[in-house]
Specification:
By secondary structure, the protein is mainly β. The chain has one domain. Helices cover 0% and strands 61% of the residues. The strands form two sheets. Strands 1-2-3-10-5-8 form a six-stranded antiparallel beta sheet, with no helix packed on it. A four-stranded antiparallel beta sheet has the order 4-9-6-7, with no helix packed on it.
Length: 124
Amino acid sequence: MGTLRGSGRNLQSSANIPIWVINNVTGSRAIDGTTYTNNTGKTMFVSITVNHHIQTAPASTYITLAVNGVDISRSAIAYSSAGGILDTVDCLTTQVPPGGTYSVSQAQIGAGSATVLSYWSEAY
């Protein structure tokens, strides 16, 4: 079976041939609609994890993952009752073709809501 190795976490086969390179790119990515391009020459899998936080109701917050300008996946949370704090964790994952573009955008409706990027990985 394979093992995880290297700074980019290379998944190795038993013949020691890289199958996947998995990179934590959280520090260099944003959920503000910035467009990134897959320059790896391979299909890339993108996975992001976010924390939604709502402190005052009514409010809602959501994120959208897009590939080549098309919305692929969305995570949303709405909170309509008064009192309490609502926190959730969501993960969105998609594949991006070679040369394809991808982005994550967010929006909040109402005061007291926020979405924070927790983790972003890219595998190819």
